[in-house]
Amino acid sequence: MIKQIPVLDCCTLSGYKEDELLVDHLADYLHKHSSLAFPHRHNFYHMVLFTSGGGAHAIDFTRFEVRPMHMYFMVPGQVHTWEFEGEVNGYVINFSREFFQSLLLRPDFLNGFSFLNGIAQDGAFQVPAHMEEEMTAFFERIYEQVNRVKPLQKDLVSVMLLYVFMRMEQQLSPAEKHKFPVYNYTLLRNFQKLIEQHFTNLRLPKDYADLLYITPNHLNALCKEYLGMQAGEVIRNRILLEAKRLLVSQDMTISEISDELSFNDNSYFTKFFKKLVGMTPEEFRKNKA
């Protein structure tokens, strides 16, 4: 059985009896969980709003500076590390995949938010100045509702969280920021979703273009215009990300990782990795150890 890097379970962190939700002040959370192993993955959704402190954190090996009113969102499976400086505080909210199920009829509802697409750069951002007071106050209201109001009204908390998501989406949606035509934005999001499902076995833009019922040229043009790269590069970047995630585990050999990602042999995987990263998989692993 292939082992991977530590995976944190919501129920191991949460004091809430149904183990679907945790809301805490960040300073208290860090004190309670000072022994967290890094890097690690979550099997739940994770969001943090910083109100003070400094340092950095990394999502899927992309580094972000910590500053007041910096916010980030993470989806299950992403790799995370912290390197905080000074007195760090704010709010942390963890919730399970199932948390919204009793309220929402659409199981894929959360996938519609641009910051929950699993792309690190889209999940970390600075809260706009005109929203700072509103967001801080609303996070405190969620904290009060979860930790001090008895009995806990789960659906009310769900609605409060969805309000936060929708307010942030209004400010941050790539469709609005870049003025995507709705059809093109939908195509790109569907392309990204298909990559998540098939990146280990479908490597060519033509494969995805067929699934989207468009031509490879059309897909390449969309990616070039809105993402600044060809469709093939988008696919390769996702394969590379998974390779990095797996390399962080000292329990998987290079051969096992190569097989996991459907490469024909180790040498081809090594050439692929070194061409994109500038070092071999072994060197990357030692560098991150």
UniProtKB/TrEMBL annotation:
The HTH araC/xylS-type domain, residue ranges: 189-287
InterPro entries, alphabetized: AraC-bd, Homeodomain-like_sf, HTH-like, HTH_AraC, Tscrpt_reg_AraC-type_HTH
Keywords linked to the UniProt accession: DNA-binding, Transcription, Transcription regulation
Keyword Cytoplasm set for record: no
Coiled coil: none
Entry-linked SMART domains: HTH_ARAC (SM00342)
GO molecular-function term, one example from the UniProt record: sequence-specific DNA binding
Protein name: Transcriptional regulator, AraC family
